Amino acid sequence: MSKRIYITGIGIISSIGNNVPEVLSSLKDCKSGIGEITLFPTLHKGLLPMAEVKLSHNQLTALAEKERAEHYTRTTLLGMVAAKEALRSAGIDHVNDRRTGLLSATTVGGMDRSEVFYQEFVQNPDKGRLRDIVNHDCGDSTERIATELGVRHLVSTISTACSSSANTIMFGADLIRFGKADRMIVGGTDSVTRFTLNGFNTLMILDKRGCHPFDEHRAGLTLGEAAAYLVLESEDIVEKEGKQPLAELTGYGNANDAYHQTASSLDGTGAFLAMSKALKMSNLKSSDIDYINVHGTGTENNDLSEGVALERIFDPVPLFSSTKSYTGHTLGAAGAVEAVIAILSIQNRMIFPNLLWSTPMKELKIKPVTEILTDQNIRHVLSNSFGFGGNNSTVILSKLT
Amino acid sequence: MGCISPQPTLDNQSFLEETVSVESNRLKAIDPNYKEFVPPEMVRRMGRIIKMGVATAKTSLADAGCQIPDAIITGTGLGCIEDTEKFLGNMIKNNEEFLTPTAFIQSTHNTVSAQIALLTKCHGYNFTYVHRGFSFESAILDSILQIENDRASTILLGAVDELTSNSFQIQSRLGYWNRKPTESLDLFEKPQNGTIAGEGAAFFLLDEKKNPNTYAVLQDVEMLFRPGSASEVAAQIRLFLERNELTEGDIDLLLLGRNGDIRFDPIYQEVTAELFPDVPSCGFKHLCGEYMTASSFGVWLASRILKEQTVPAVLRVTVQPKSLNNILLYNHYQGINHSFILLSQP
């Protein structure tokens, strides 16, 4: 049983950069990826902002080093780009020299193509190009990414709404810890679609100005798209190969709020339980946490519930921020995106701020970091990811000791 | 356990003495009166797949005498496809106007697990796996790891998939289903290019301790992604059995996921011929149809067989097993997701 789980590689593509160096540069420059909708025609264009990866389907196909763009969904292509970067970053040339698995998260799967298929299908069930629907299910993107990477061992997909990719980190770590794999590529990918845009819009939780989490005048979230993956490796491999990991995964916790299908409880029960479990596993005291990358979607309900849970666990609450003000809410990818950002925080001794923040929430005593902080000794970062269905997840990433 | 399938399986009493056969390429699960399982104010709005999940989850909790499990772990291949189709269709037909949130909310893949957590007030570990023919298998693997490593004592494990007219139509166009419908019970007698579509929900309450009501021991699971050949599958089954300190001769019954599709069935015969030439075997998809989590029906079946110590006649087993201690379930989804599940008598 491997006692320690290390992160040896990271990869990301999001609205603030197509790879880790670009994302880091945007984070340092406080440059948000939120802007106007350009990727698809929609009634909401010009009215609601979004955080898009500014690459057309063809450009993204080229970046993923693939041809025949029409055979890939945007979700798959984003995932391929980030997963390949993660493997390169971990210095892995041959995935099958160890028992290597892939766990990927997604909430929309191939919806970007299903929408195209359905345009014709709703008129006539014999119409619509089948190649636009065969990639609909969530497993499709994972299998294509696995095939691209050559992964044969364990391949699976998790979908627990906005906590999905945080859960791939947990299950991936468990598979290594309990001897089912030596190395796991974990993370998630989600593209923006009309389906999710309209879905969240019916809930009236999309902020017309772009999200400003933990602000008294917050008015909702902003959708984004991204993919991010981490390479988790066992202590054994790291020692045998003399690898220099990027960080250690020291704790994680998963709980269910069991309160409401889409709303979080007022006392933050699920969030409290997830954070408590993660702290317990890591053997850390709440005062050991130097920075919290909050879920912080910018909806009235999430930020209040999460804020209450933070105040219940921490006294005082450590420095915290929501980097969704940079990347938008990337749904199934969010947990992995924010885990990558947490690692960049540790490596660069920086805390990246909540952008667009102006007014403290009246119900809370706490307020987020609103300007970039440098020269911070960040030993442990706690990162939260919460989703519909009360799925609450927390991971703790630590500086190497 | 709790199982909703195209057969009368929810009562946990009768055991396939009476079965349903249809002359069609589509087997529909038998809906119980959901008002017995779901609060009345929720019955109408709740998607059918969610109701199937909740009804089978509640049945298994009641069957096991468990109020709140420590964890809920589920698998679903396509998730809440009816609500997904509904929201997508309305969005396109109404050009993004006049949309209501219910279908969108329920379209999320983890809705079944979430609703069960909500209705049972279960704050524990809650996961949903959504990977084709590995959806239920991943949930099993996670469940076994959680129990073996003392993270949980009781787990509600389950799988659910629904078949809608649209998904059936699309999969027909993709060539999944039989063009010439035959009696479903005769699925294996007249193999074609295609099979019959199915659906269902099965939930299991796993407990680290055995009790007099225990059906079976869920020993182990293995998933094999895109194996190159039947001999690779056979080699992996050998390793799988070895890991469980068993040999081929210890398997009393082989449950095979064959579905009558001549494009995908030969590998079952090849693996059986190589490893288990004399082991009694039978298929089960003539009862439940093909769907991404059909192996969950297989696990329900294996568990009942182990408890009742009898193989129902409708399974048309090759030879009557001499004993029923170990059952190996070998299934694959479209030749890509192969899985082995081992169950034993408690």
How would you characterize this protein structure?
The complex is a heterodimer of chains A (401) and B (346). By secondary structure, chain A is of the alpha/beta class. Chain A has two domains: 5-241, Thiolase/Chalcone synthase (Peroxisomal Thiolase, Chain A, domain 1, 3-Layer(aba) Sandwich); 249-398, Peroxisomal Thiolase, Chain A, domain 1 (3-Layer(aba) Sandwich), CATH 3.40.47.10. In chain A, 33% of the residues lie in helices and 17% in strands. A ten-stranded mixed β-sheet of chain A has the order 3-2-4-5-1-6-10-9-7-8, with helices on both faces. In chain A, helix 2 packs parallel to helix 3 (74-89) and helix 9 crosses helix 10. The longest helix of chain A has 16 residues, at 74-89. Chain B has 346 residues and is an alpha/beta fold. Helices cover 34% and strands 18% of the residues of chain B. Chain B has eleven helices and ten strands. Chain B has helices spanning 40-43, 48-64, 81-93, 101-107, 111-120, 135-148, 165-173, 230-243, 266-275, 285-288, 295-308, and strands at residues 2-4, 71-75, 125-129, 154-161, 200-207, 217-225, 253-256, 281-283, 326-333, 337-344. In chain B, the strands form two sheets. A five-stranded mixed β-sheet of chain B has the order 1-5-4-2-3, sandwiched between helices. Chain B has a five-stranded mixed β-sheet with strand order 6-10-9-7-8, with helices on both faces. Chain B is globular and about 60 Å long. Chain B starts with a strand and ends with a strand. At the A-B interface, helix 4, helix 5, strand 3, helix 6 and helix 7 of A face helix 3, helix 4, helix 5, strand 3 and helix 6 of B.
